[in-house]
Write a structure and sequence with these properties.
By secondary structure, the chain is an alpha/beta fold. Helix content is about 30%, strand content about 25%. A hairpin with a 4-residue loop joins strand 2 and strand 3.
Length: about 240
């Protein structure tokens, strides 16, 4: 199985949709995904994801099914931190995260200042639980960091979601400590991240990222890459 994690196109947060630029991105994205042989399309319930997915659904003739658990994790807001002010978890500066290298593991990262609240733990646990249920429906049952193959699946599944959510989900799939995922990676608007369920035997599959933040569709159409989500020195 191939799983395509797609961040929505350039957002218009105020109106719960995408910008004029975002519509151009979504059209270019649909043109690219039409050739991928998609078999299913899922989307976050939020307008910016749904409106991005509409173009691909029309291009492929597939229906979009809403998965509520893939909405953005907006509850992961933190108290103001000087000198950066209020932040959301995935925008916590890497200099704070990497200062605590000794706890940058899947089990201990909650010890990093500002990331250890019970609220954060509940949200991440919820995402992981829904991820496991979603993949079990598609033939893969999680066992530790591996997935038991319940039935062979060669589908190509697109999930239109969000930057913070996408990085959080990838952390669970790839067994990368979440703070490193948040501070070390960024998903551009309308970008495509491809995860292959790599089977070296008939029994087990292990998610493997074979393409991250692909924006080749934008380059082919001569469109700029939106900087939404980058906080400093993008240029």
């Amino acid at each position: 199985m191939r799983l395509y994690l797609i961040r929505h196109a350039e957002p218009d947060y105020e109106h719960n949709t995408i910008t004029k630029q975002g519509h151009l991105e979504a059209k270019a994205l649909a043109k690219r995904l039409k050739s991928e042989g998609l078999t299913r399309i899922y989307s976050s319930p939020l307008g910016r994801a749904l409106h991005t997915a509409e173009y691909t659904a029309k291009a492929t003739g597939l229906k979009t099914k809403v998965e509520n658990w893939t909405r953005e994790l907006s509850e992961l807001k933190m108290e103001p931190i000087a000198p950066w002010g209020p932040l959301i978890a995935w925008d916590l500066p890497g200099e704070i995260i990497r200062e605590k290298r000794e706890v940058l593991t899947q089990k201990a990262w909650h010890q990093i200042p500002n990331l250890g609240s019970k609220k954060f733990s509940r949200v991440i646990t919820r995402v992981n639980r829904h991820s496991d249920a979603f993949l079990k429906r598609h033939g893969y049952r999680r066992a530790g960091g591996r997935y038991w193959v319940l039935q062979e699946n060669r589908e190509r599944i697109a999930v239109f979601c969000h930057g913070g959510f996408g990085l959080t989900w990838l952390s669970h799939l790839l067994e990368i400590p979440l703070p490193l995922m948040w501070s070390g990676f960024w998903m551009a608007p309308s970008s495509v991240t491809t995860v292959l369920f790599d089977m070296r035997s008939e029994k087990w599959a292990v998610p493997r990222c074979i393409g991250f933040c692909d924006v080749s569709h934008l380059r082919l159409e001569g469109l700029p890459i939106s900087t939404h989500g980058i906080k400093a020195n993008f240029d």
